[in-house]
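Input sequence (301 aa), recorded before submission:
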Amino acid sequence: MTKLDQLAAMSTVVADTGDIDAISQLKPVDATTNPSLLLKAAGLERFADDVSALKGSQNATDEFAVRVGSKIVQLVPGVVSTEVDARLSFDTNRTIAKAESLIDQYAKLGVDSSRVLIKIASTWEGIRAAAELEKRRIHCNLTLLFGFEQAQACADAGVFLISPFVGRITDWYKSNTNISIHSPEQDPGVQSVRRIYTHYKIHGYETVVMGASFRNTAQIEALAGCDRLTIAPNLLNELDQSEGDLPRALVSAKEHMAAPAPIGEAEFRFEHNESAMASEKLADGIRRFVVDQRKLEEALA
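Predicted structure, token format:
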């Protein structure tokens, strides 16, 4: 068995791409998209007709995201994640409205809400929006998650899934500290996801942990057994061409402890501010998605 086959037996494999051809070839269970991936998709010949048809439409970017997502769900047995405009990251009510609009657009194309996860940045306001959307049976994927306090708040809110980032955490520590990483166990991005996963399983939270943003296959292998792992096509191909034993790295807790008291807004904001890495990477991630969202809008104008 290839390492990808072994990984798929332990974790749900998710394709981190909007490339239909890659999804068709790799056959993941789920797929995720974001403004950056949609911008790449808009430049593909496969979506040329969609781009042409949407030119000048008032909601062209949302419509394009839904069109891409609706094609992806035809290729995967699970769900596709579609992201809310990152400019709404600090507006709870408008995030809720945008999420419901995306779900309505999917419904018009015959895609049931059970096949869609709404991606929202893990700000305090975004987490509050997700908590309300979950009550309305709209499942959410909380992204741009770097700090443990973000994971705590997401679990308290009962969100369906979180996407803790690995590679971007590692990038920050390499750029801002003298850290030496000689093995995946020393990788701060891997350590972060392992801590979150252990916390969730010990306390019996149902929120799904989906590791994201990988820089190499070693990081992925170090999280084998995580609930889900969303992986770029180049790394999926690398795993698919690799043989050798892939041991399980994460195991669910056999005994549960009572969940701690929910984290409040003041504590959340203080702990997030205390982490230069988490606060800087969340802000940077939102800015980058906004840049690509605007580029996508220009491409569809």
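Checked by second reader. The chain has one domain: 3-299.
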